[in-house]
Amino acid sequence: MPALRLSASTQDLIHAARLLADGGLVAFPTETVYGLGADARQDRAVARIFEAKGRPAFNPLIVHCAELDQVKALVHWSEAAQALADAFWPGPLTLVLPLRADAGVSRLVTAGLDSLAVRMPAAPVAHSLLSAFGGPVAAPSANRSGQISPTRAAHVMADLGDRIEAVVDGGPCAVGLESTILGLTGTPPTLLRPGGITEDALGAVLHTHIARRRETDGITAPGQTRSHYAPRAKVRLNAVEFEPGEARLGFGPVACDLNLSPSEDLTEAAANLFEYLHRLDATGAGTIAITPVPHIGLGVAINDRLSRAAAER
Ligand code: TXA
Ligand code: MG
Q: Which residues have a Cβ under 8 Å from the Cβ of 237 and sit 6 or more positions away?
């Protein structure tokens, strides 16, 4: 059975919440990317996420909540967490905090770790669905493992439509890049994945040095495997000139097939990134060539995703 396509109407969101309560898989839009949601407390439902994505079981999932009180029932809260939540929640920031013994989330969610990744999404559709459901929802990006992240309901349908119960169509995602993940289980705080909130913005709130995860630290986030977000086509970065036959992805004032942002606006580029990779991949071109994107602000996260899309597989 193909997935049910639901709208963002109250009636449809109540339906989606009921599917989650029944152990179903429901994809829904957040401001970053579409998530593949399941009730974080039901082992069987969470196991089905891994099955549908074809995801290595050692990769832990982010839990999404509508309210701060729900988050505090899952993790040991801290002053730093409160400052960050005040500044950035709801929004594209995920915090990794010590798991409470009485959290009640499936051990599959944390992949056995004693920490939990939590996030409160800003997209109104996500908030309404989480409120209607009333509990913690585990949700990785709604794509098969290693594929490009989905920023449209159509991407989810194409990739997972035959493996899940429903997709809530809330239109395109505003940010278009996954959340920033910050580890708060030790000192100093550690940037585990660059994303929608920049390192500078985090630093300004925390007034402390933020460590970067080192490649030698092992995989604590799947976006950290070197090859990830991979289109079918090969990806060539920092293209100065295009070769004949290449699908041409540009940034700034260049002649190309699709332009992430003609005016060099990094926010616009982030929002377009995955959609344009999807579109150029669908042309069947052997290679997608991309002109340079500056490594500043959101450009750090954009280049992170691009370099993983280009990595040897
Ligand atoms: O924007 C987002 O974060 C999207 C939307 C749907 O919320 N979700 C997302 O999920 O990107 P996913 O599963 O594709 O990436 C979650 C990341 C993974 O890299 C995972 O390893 C990391 O979060 N993670 C989850 N729990 C963790 C933990 N306890 N410690 C360290 N990393 C953790
Ligand atoms: Mg992902």
A: 290, 292, 306, 307, 310
Which candidate, 305, 124, 150, places its Cα nearest to that of 228?
Answer: 305
Chain centroid, CA 102 distance in Å: 27
pTM: 0.89
**β-strand partners of 6:** 168
Model pLDDT, residue 241: 94
Q: Is the CB of 260 under 6 A from ligand 1?
A: no
- The answer to whether the CB of 148 is under 6 A from ligand 1 is no
- Identify the pLDDT of residue 216: 46
Quote the CA–CA distance of 161 and 140 in Å, as a whole number: 16
Place of tokens 């992949």: 111
d(CA 200, CA 204) in angstroms, rounded, equals 6
How open is the CA angle 160-163-168, to the nearest 5 degrees?
A: 65
What was the pLDDT predicted at 227? 65
Contact indicator for 142, 32 with CB cutoff of 8 Å: no
Residue whose entry in the numeric block shows the structure tokens 């030790």: 186
Residue 224 counted as domain residue: no
The preferred substitution site among 181, 213, 219, 226 for testing ligand 1, maximizing ligand atoms within 8 Å of CB, is 181
Sheet strand arrangement including 258-259: 234-236, 287-290, 247-250, 258-259
Which range of residues forms the domain containing residue 89? 4-217
Residue 111 CA: which ligand is closest?
1
pLDDT at 212: 87
What is the C-alpha separation between 313 and 308, in angstroms, rounded? 10
CATH of the domain at 290: 3.40.50.11030
The enclosing domain of 175 has a CATH number of: 3.90.870.10
Q: Which residue positions in the chain have pLDDT lower than 50?
A: 215-216, 219, 222
Query: What is the pLDDT, as a whole number, of residue 121?
Result: 98
Q: Which atom of ligand 1 is nearest to the CA of 99?
A: 29
Asked if 205 and 263 sit in the same domain, the reply is no
Q: Kindly state whether residue 227 falls inside one of the protein's structural domains.
A: no
